[in-house]
Amino acid sequence: MSRLRVAAAIAGAALVGAVLVPRLAAADRDAAVPDAGYRIVRAVEEGEVRSTEEVVVRAPFHSKRVVSRDGAVVDGTLANDAGLWRWVGDGWLLVDEGSRRADGASLHGILPFLTANGLAEARGSDEVAGRQCDVVRTREPVGIVASQPPTDADHAELCIAPEGVVLRERWLVGGRLLRSTTAVRFDVAPADSASAFEAAPVAAEAEGAPAPPSLRRGVKLPDSANLVFATSYDVPADVERLPNATWATFDEAGRFLEGTVERRFRRGGELVDIEELEPDRLPTRAGIETTTAVGIGSLSTDLRTLTLTVPVNDHVTVVIRASSARLIEEFARAIRIESEDL
Q1: DSSP 8-class letter at 71
Q2: Cα(279)–Cα(336) distance, rounded to whole angstroms?
Q3: Is 296 helix (H, G, I), strand (E, B) or coil?
Q4: Which of 3, 6, 135, 235 is the Cys-Cys partner for 239 at CB 3.0 to 4.6 Å?
């Protein structure tokens, strides 16, 4: 099936319903967030604003973040099997259908790439919320693409627990403290983690509910959709292949815009997802040149995930995402070109 026919199939279904990652540190502490998950409560200070942030994670597909001020919830996101939800004042609003990667994976799988490429510095150890943690400096905080080394005036100082979870973060720009977060409680495998991801939905027309410009929905392709990809992967035996996720994006009027198929793999709580995209659909982001089994790619990270982009031909660029440098390296070795014609 050609790429145009794949898009058409998605639209139809939706309308019906020695290869090395560059300078990868040898000592890769590839510890993953426990499958049973964790809960962390942090005190947050941004200027004069004080708030409390509670995060619950059960990898690879469930996470919740709730921000409260003066006892009232002011912001929140929730990912569960139904999709991505946002807090809108008195409940949860489903804004994107379909499961996706949990927000809150272990940083230990990313740190080797950062330190080996001069994007992070080890600064000793400390204790936060009764837990020992490693102090690491990066230029930017979690969520912003790392592209420069830290300096004394510009850095995010992170204290990271053995599970790879950030217990403390201090973000300085121009020597000025912009944000400080400090854990006051950290629990591994909380007893109520399963119920934490239930959502009490509000009506889409509720006051204050966001109206996203586009909505990405998970869709089911017809059985006749024989998908053909430009690449395949000789993955290790301990990597589990998960069902594909098929996405369709719509505009505000409900008109189909585009579709994509995401291949998924899992090792424990670590998720790998792979998309084949047209080059003009990719955002521009800084990265480190990376050798793969099929050519040169670019590897970058926002400290949540590592993203490897590899041009296959003029029409297809492979995008591989994982929260582990070791898994990225394994998949960089595992790429095989199946078709040059797609």
Answers
A1: T
A2: 19
A3: strand
A4: 235
